[in-house]
Amino acid sequence: MRYLFFILTQTGRNFRQTWGAQLMTLLTVTLSVLFFSFFYLIYNNVLQGAARLGDELRLIVFLDQEVVPELRPALEKKIREFSEVEKIIFISPTEAFTRLGEQLGNDRDVLDDLDGSFLPYSIEIYLKKDFKNLAGIKDFSEYLTTLPGAMKVQYGHGWVERFGYFVNLSRIIVLLSGALLTLTATFMVSYTIRLTLVARQDELEIFRLLGATNAFIKGPVLIEGFLQGVFGSTMGMTALYFCFLWIQNHFNGPGFLNLFEFSFLPFTEAALIFVCSICLCTVGSLFSIRKFVRI
Amino acid sequence: MRYLFFILTQTGRNFRQTWGAQLMTLLTVTLSVLFFSFFYLIYNNVLQGAARLGDELRLIVFLDQEVVPELRPALEKKIREFSEVEKIIFISPTEAFTRLGEQLGNDRDVLDDLDGSFLPYSIEIYLKKDFKNLAGIKDFSEYLTTLPGAMKVQYGHGWVERFGYFVNLSRIIVLLSGALLTLTATFMVSYTIRLTLVARQDELEIFRLLGATNAFIKGPVLIEGFLQGVFGSTMGMTALYFCFLWIQNHFNGPGFLNLFEFSFLPFTEAALIFVCSICLCTVGSLFSIRKFVRI
Amino acid sequence: MISDDHPAIIEFVKISKVYPPDILALVDISFKINKGEMVFLTGPSGAGKTTMIKLICNIDKPTKGFIDIAGNDLSKIKPAAMQALRQKIGVAYQDFRLLPRLTVFQNIAMALEVKFMDGKTIRSRIHEVLNVLNMTNKIYKRTDKLSRGEQQRVAIARAAAARPILLLADEPTGNLDSQAGTDVMALFSQLNEEGTTVVIATHDKSIYRDSHCRIFHLDGGELDITGQEPEDREQGTET
Amino acid sequence: MISDDHPAIIEFVKISKVYPPDILALVDISFKINKGEMVFLTGPSGAGKTTMIKLICNIDKPTKGFIDIAGNDLSKIKPAAMQALRQKIGVAYQDFRLLPRLTVFQNIAMALEVKFMDGKTIRSRIHEVLNVLNMTNKIYKRTDKLSRGEQQRVAIARAAAARPILLLADEPTGNLDSQAGTDVMALFSQLNEEGTTVVIATHDKSIYRDSHCRIFHLDGGELDITGQEPEDREQGTET
Ligand SMILES: Nc1ncnc2c1ncn2[C@@H]1O[C@H](COP(=O)(O)OP(=O)(O)OP(=O)(O)O)[C@@H](O)[C@H]1O
Ligand SMILES: Nc1ncnc2c1ncn2[C@@H]1O[C@H](COP(=O)(O)OP(=O)(O)OP(=O)(O)O)[C@@H](O)[C@H]1O
Ligand SMILES: [Mg+2]
Ligand SMILES: [Mg+2]
């Protein structure tokens, strides 16, 4: 079809003639995609890491008597009523004694002459991974003290707070930076596209005066925006992947980060970012041409 | 002086005629300053927080005999030889026993019938705040096992690793984002200035043809760059301050972040960022005009 | 578009054009130009010649009045129809409106590409028209590397290459010597003989002094027509 | 700058200008133009007139040869001296080079501001020159809102307002009707009588036909001078 041929010729010519501006737009798109996906990657990994470390978030309720197995379901129900509970374990004094020994490590000979009977019965409650809600944990622990026979509720207060603090700090940094950057990226892309078009205003004006149809004028711009999107996001993603590799190599020393697997974006999410940035570029270029093609 | 008057008239006219582009440059400068100083602020606070939490990073060396006071200086010297040590405390079994009681909390009655004599002598070593070097801590702990009489070396393995991991993650995010952003900021500022000048290329060309002196052409551009720098960095810093207030209000709930005081940039550093961005803008505009004023 | 019951290709009815705040560029002007006619538009600088050409190709709107171009009422025309109409009108602007970074060939080709002509026709048309204007040796030069008179001829060539039904030329000989001016007028005459309606705005007395065409004289926005409306031209129209 | 032992204000010695790859715009041209002279530069479109004017004001460099302007060797001139020299040369470019977003006043004022004249002088000079050109009513209009002929007069006004010692006008009447053309020529004559050397590149025979000035005819880059070099003009120089 001759129409398509003209559009493609036009597009090719535009690329050749305005390659400086095109390169600038490409770079902008690349950087924007890189920024956004970089922060998304970090955010993703922080959430994952938090989930993994969250396994250890547990509360212990010390009881003043043994819970007979028949009572357990009722107690469990009461506990689950209040909060999102992952797992509940009932611990006898003997089990607790073994653990104390493990905790004392090499010094366990302290306990050599004792049996565990002086230790209280207890319930260990593991929560679903939800670090946001430290205040909630406090409320929950207060609720647990009202359970029948509950003597005292213990949880890794300091540790949880410190850990929660860091997760939160990371979250703030990531979200705030992400927001700022997405803002800038949008601004940069639209600004660059607008400038490219202002530089081509004369050309568009002449086309208009020569009676070019809307499709003839918009076609090349559309293809251009699309290609910018494709190449820009490909390059951005590639750059992100190299960033990712760098972080992995640099900070994944043995015994240090093995606790935490730094992983790349899942395929679907990477694809989504990809598709979205292509759409944005295409629509953006189409939108910014609007004011130049009237009558 | 008439010269100054012309320059100022010129500058005023330029601002009026190209206010769109000027606003764009201003916004760019503002955002760049905001980004840079935002990351600097976070980085600063992460370091401070790390320093504060770092108090608890200590190693304990268990000994098979008491260290007589006379031997302590020699041992201390040996320990300090290897690493940056903040504080060294020698602990007797009695002291250790008291602590064990504190650790057991309400369950301290376990120890009621015992005295501390079964516990070993130990040395607590507090390190200077340096979280980067977790591998170094491992080496150091291995070194400590070679000390005369050392039985075992203990440190908050899991806790330190997890904490270190988060500090490191924050650091990576902050540094990498900072680097990316400083890059973009530089690119954006120079690009915007260049574009503004390209838009004014005709004017500069005509001035050149009319025989305007270099000072006549460069003066207004210089003043413009300077003013852009002043207003841009003022606005950027103000925006940063509001970000800071927002973070503080939002995440400084009682009992949660009181561990950690989120503080603004020290005056000298804020001033430095301010002065640097003004210089950058001025020099940048001067530099980018160079190719337009020849012959 | 052009039906037989519309002998007039351009019709102005009581047209006024006021530029804000108070510049009367055209004042209450009415006239008809028939298909196949050639008309000269004269008048001192600032008389409103360019304004009139702008109104004809709908670049600007009149403040008052009614314009009909080839059967289209310009105040009500739809974008698609306007685009189709513009493809049939060739305009050589007073300020040329060439793209400086494109070659002569590319600049002229644009006018043909928008009509989706095939490459071969485009090439032959361009060579043909540049030949008449003595510009074939500059065909692959960028237009910003040409002398002003050469640029002017490119602008004229672009207007003529598409073989429009209506050709508007604004000051086509302003930067041309007498020989080049003669070439341009020869091109216009040739097109006119093939049926194109030609409107030429000019100050150059030498090009219209000896012609038999109507002369539209504008002064201070007022129109004064001299010469006879040719009745015998109408059969020369092209579809 | 202009000493008495330099009666020539423009001197070309064996100048050639070749545009890559092979366009010979000027071929081995030598001439002198004396202070206070008025000279017409003619020739067909593409002959090299604009190229010559560009060489005179050092916008372009010759491929070969030596140019001396008011005692300055252009191949060795320093930037500061070039700036000072340009302030003394007024050029009305063929493509005007006006700033479209500034008013007529602002455009002309630029040429005076670079010389650090005071506001009062600037205003009176601008009014004076616009008066001669019949353009005072457009003084506060933006130049992109003017007709082409009005723009041309603004370009001429800018060149003349600074009272240069040398005035170069490239096709100054291309977009002007005969009345406006006469006004422009009157301005040039007036300046010339006050001692300004005037060089006018033009195709318009009517403006040089009856003059007694030398006519430089360029064709294909080759120069042919007709008319007598006036010996009696030299005392009219201005410092
Ligand atoms: N966009 C505009 N805004 C305001 N005034 C305008 C505009 N365009 C033209 N004018 C004014 O309208 C009048 C007619 O202008 P026009 O361009 O039609 O003249 P013209 O006959 O083409 O003159 P020339 O021979 O100099 O090209 C002039 O006084 C001009 O200043
Ligand atoms: N920048 C350039 N690069 C290449 N060729 C050029 C350039 N400028 C001019 N030329 C060529 O040099 C020749 C002389 O051009 P010049 O502009 O001097 O002609 P002119 O006498 O002013 O013509 P006109 O009357 O049309 O303005 C022309 O053939 C032109 O195409
Ligand atoms: Mg006009
Ligand atoms: Mg020329």
Strands of chain C, count: 10
Which sheet architecture does the biggest sheet of chain C show? 6 strands, mixed
Q: What is the chain-wise order of helices and strands of chain A? A: HHEHEHEHEHHHH
Q: What's the story with the biggest beta sheet of chain A?
A: 4 strands, antiparallel
Shape of chain C: globular
Counting structural domains of chain C, the number is: 1
Question: Helices and strands of chain C: which structural class?
Answer: alpha/beta
**Distance between the ends of chain C:** 9 Å
Bound ligand species? adenosine-5'-triphosphate, magnesium ion
Number of helices of chain A: 9
**Low-pLDDT runs of chain A:** 253-259
Shape of chain A: rod-shaped
Low-confidence stretches of chain C: 232-239
Q: Output the structural class of chain A.
A: alpha+beta
Textual characterization of the structure:
- Chain A is α+β, with helices and mostly antiparallel strands.
- Helix content of chain A is 67%, strand content 9%.
- Chain A contains nine helices and four strands; from the N terminus they run H-H-E-H-E-H-E-H-E-H-H-H-H.
- Chain A starts with a helix and ends in a 6-residue tail after the last helix.
- Chain C has one domain (35-61, 87-238): P-loop containing nucleotide triphosphate hydrolases (Rossmann fold, 3-Layer(aba) Sandwich), CATH 3.40.50.
- Helices cover 31% and strands 26% of the residues of chain C.
- Chain C contains seven helices and ten strands.
- Chain C has helices spanning 49-56, 79-87, 104-113, 119-132, 148-161, 178-193, 205-208; strands at residues 8-19, 23-34, 38-42, 64-69, 72-73, 89-92, 166-170, 197-201, 214-219, 222-226.
- In chain C, strand 1 (8-19) and strand 2 form a beta hairpin.
- The termini of chain C are close together.
- Residues 232-239 of chain C have low confidence and may be disordered.
- The chains are: A alpha+beta (295), C alpha/beta (239).
- Chains in contact: A-B, A-C, B-D, C-D.
- Bound molecules: adenosine-5'-triphosphate (ATP) (2 copies) and magnesium ion (2 copies).
